[in-house]
Design brief:
The structure holds two protein chains of two kinds.
Chain A (H helix, E strand, L loop, with lengths): L11 E10 L2 E11 L3 E5 L6 H9 L6 E6 L2 E2 L4 H5 L2 E4 L11 H11 L4 H14 L15 H13 L5 E5 L7 H16 L4 E6 L2 H7 L2 E6 L2 E7 H6 L3 E8 L2 H10 L3 E4 L5 E5 L5 H10 L3 E7 L4 H9 L3
Parallel strand pairs in A: 3-8, 3-9, 6-7, 7-8
Antiparallel strand pairs in A: 1-2, 1-4, 4-5, 9-10, 11-13, 11-14, 12-13
Chain B lengths: L21 H14 L2 H10 L1 H15 L10 H23 L4 H5 L2 H6 L5 H19 L1 H15 L3 H5 L3 H25 L4 H26 L9 H12 L10 H22 L8
Helix pairs in contact in B: 1-7, 2-4, 3-8, 4-7, 4-10, 4-11, 7-8, 7-10, 8-10, 10-11, 10-12, 10-13, 12-13
Classes of the chains: A alpha/beta, B mainly alpha.
Chain lengths: 312, 280
């Protein structure tokens, strides 16, 4: 089987793709490029991440635009593409009445593997995802975390060149989540499997992916290397104040800065390149607010995300 | 220390089949799954009961001249299919009701359709499972009976005198199983409950028969036989076996109704078997 593309050649790309479900436009003129390796598809719920994956799989026909996956036109050869793709859906899915090893082997056969090879691979990938001891159990008796793992196993059994993971850590406990993310990193870095990880969880994407495509309301808000995106068009400061927070935030925004809370009483303030700490102090003084804490901060993916979607 | 999963996953370098054969995998797996159920073996045994009885009758008529009344005729084969109707209904409900409904309940459609197979292949695989068992209780025993008749009588006289019988048996069995199979699959795709689908199918068959029975009783005319699922098959069956049609309604109308039902089922399947549920 041919491999998986180089850094220069995207494993998947969309050119002005729009998808409409009745009156609702799920994707609007989406142009995005997914490079080889691990790419995060990030966005809040309802941003269009799952729809984008389903369009690439050929489940949904776009109203406009063109898509290529592994260099193949999706509209022309969806089956050829799916033979080289693995898809781990967001919602639970299994074949009723089968144990794990039969289910995964069956999926391998459906993907074109001979029966004996499919069975052998089924055992291997079930061990790989941590279900080796439970592989003869009926999948309907599995816990949520085990169901996530078996969805990954069925997506891997035919050794895809590109893997679509839709919210792979949904419903998993912290340990299970960590193990799942380790598997994702291992696949991308050591097993040369390209993958697109769709998630609304920033830490998951940050822990596993080098690149990101951020979606918001059916459009691509930003995309690129996470390091570059963090590197920044803006400086970030952590600020704690005493006084009228709302007035201060409004004043900052009037000056072109962006603020968002951290869940504590800290504000993360993204200032424009020509602004600095002195501007923040003078602004606070003008609005009779005491600055109790001000520290330059390292930009995080959360900042990139917040800036991209214009969240406050 | 190397994690254990580093040793358990490797890239696959073996052969892969070209897309297009997945329906066979689905059908074969479905058949194997049904055959693991002991209860179904009892059903099969019962469905073949008539075959064994008829086989004995053929043997006796071929070997004892005073038992000529047991000799086979065209009507014998027509009756064979009529008696098998109950098993066709049972097998259709038992095997077919969960074929798509269970996949919908467990979100399996998105798993299937993320593999290199089309929606038509998926339906063909499911239909293959159902048709295999339906043909096993209709076409297979009927052809076996014809073969046994030749063997027991050591003569081709009966078959030679009724050359149309072989194609008639094949054609009627196909019409019957295709109508039952497509209708059941369409109903199964409408629900996530195999039990509900089974009741729905049995309801369609029995309700349409009851409506026709009532109309027939009131008007003393069978010109509305096309209303009944089963009566249409009976009417077509009579014509295929070159017998006098039993109802007053035109047999061509029954052909049209059967074709429309299969067409409607295909339309429903096309709408319902999708990798993603689109609610607009």
């Amino acid at each position: 089987m041919s491999t998986s593309g180089s850094e220069d050649q995207p494993v998947a790309s969309l050119d002005n793709v729009s998808v409409r479900f009745g009156a609702q436009e799920a994707l609007r003129n989406v142009s995005a490029s997914f490079a080889a390796g691990a790419v995060g598809l990030l966005g809040p719920n309802g941003a269009g991440k799952s729809t984008l994956l389903k369009v690439l799989l050929g489940f949904v026909t776009p109203t406009a635009g063109r898509m290529d996956v592994l260099g193949i036109d999706v509209a022309a050869h969806p089956q050829r593409i799916r033979a080289r793709l693995g898809y781990m859906p967001e919602s639970d899915g299994h074949i009723p009445g089968m144990n794990a090893v039969s289910f995964v082997a069956y999926c391998g056969q459906l993907a074109g593997l001979p029966r004996s090879d499919a069975m052998q691979r089924a055992h291997e990938v079930l061990y790989y995802v941590g279900l080796g001891e439970a592989r003869y159990r009926n999948t309907e008796t599995y816990s949520t975390g085990m169901k996530q793992r078996i969805k990954l196993a069925q997506a891997l059994v035919h050794d895809p060149d590109l893997l679509f993971l839709d919210e792979p850590t949904n419903g998993m406990d912290p340990k299970g989540r960590e193990e799942m993310l380790e598997l994702v990193v291992d696949l991308a870095t050591r097993k040369s499997v390209n993958l697109i990880l769709s998630s609304h969880l920033l830490p998951d994407v940050e822990a596993t992916c080098g690149r990101v495509v951020v979606m918001h309301q059916g459009t691509v808000a930003t995309q690129g290397l996470i390091a570059d995106l963090k590197g920044l068009r803006r400086q970030v400061f952590e600020v704690r104040i005493k006084g009228d927070v709302d007035t201060f935030v409004a004043a900052l925004e009037a000056e072109g800065a962006e603020c968002h809370g951290t869940g504590e009483d800290l504000l993360r303030v993204l200032v424009t390149p020509d602004q600095g700490p002195r501007d923040l102090f003078s602004l606070a003084a003008r609005h009779q607010v005491q600055v109790r804490h001000l520290r330059p901060s390292v930009p995080t993916l959360e900042d990139v995300f917040a800036e991209a979607i214009g969240e406050e | 220390m190397t994690p254990i999963h580093d040793q358990s996953y490797r890239r696959y370098a073996g052969v892969r089949q070209e897309p297009g054969a997945a329906w066979l995998v689905i059908a074969a797996t479905g058949i194997r799954t049904v055959l693991t159920k002991k209860f179904f073996w009892l059903v099969l045994l019962a469905a073949w009961g008539q075959f064994f009885v008829r086989a004995v009758m053929f043997y006796l008529s071929a070997n004892f001249s005073n038992l000529d009344l047991l000799a086979p005729s065209v009507e014998t084969f027509r009756q064979f299919f009529e008696i098998q109707e109950i098993f066709v209904l049972f097998v259709t409900v038992y095997v077919g009701s969960g074929l798509i409904a269970n996949d919908r309940r467990s979100n399996a459609l998105q798993i299937y359709l993320s593999k290199p197979l089309t929606r038509a292949e998926y339906v063909a695989g499911k239909l293959g499972t159902l048709l295999f068992f339906l043909l096993l209780v209709t076409l297979a025993p009927a052809l076996m009976l014809l073969f046994l008749e030749m063997m027991f009588s050591a003569s081709l006289a009966f078959v030679g005198a009724n050359l149309f019988l072989l194609p008639a048996i094949t054609l009627y069995a196909l019409v019957e199983v295709l109508l039952s199979g497509f209708t059941m699959l369409a109903l199964s795709s409408l629900s996530t409950s195999a039990r509900y689908t089974a009741m729905l199918y049995a309801g369609v068959v029995l309700f349409t028969a009851a409506v026709f029975g009532i109309v027939n009783g009131i008007t003393n005319s069978s010109s509305l036989a096309w209303l009944s699922f089963r009566a249409n098959l009976d009417q077509i069956g009579d014509v295929i076996f070159r017998l006098q049609p039993r109802f007053e309604s035109p047999w061509l109308l029954s052909v049209v109704v059967v074709a429309l039902l299969i067409g409607l089922s295909v339309f429903v399947l096309e709408r319902r078997v999708r990798g993603v549920e689109v609610v607009t």
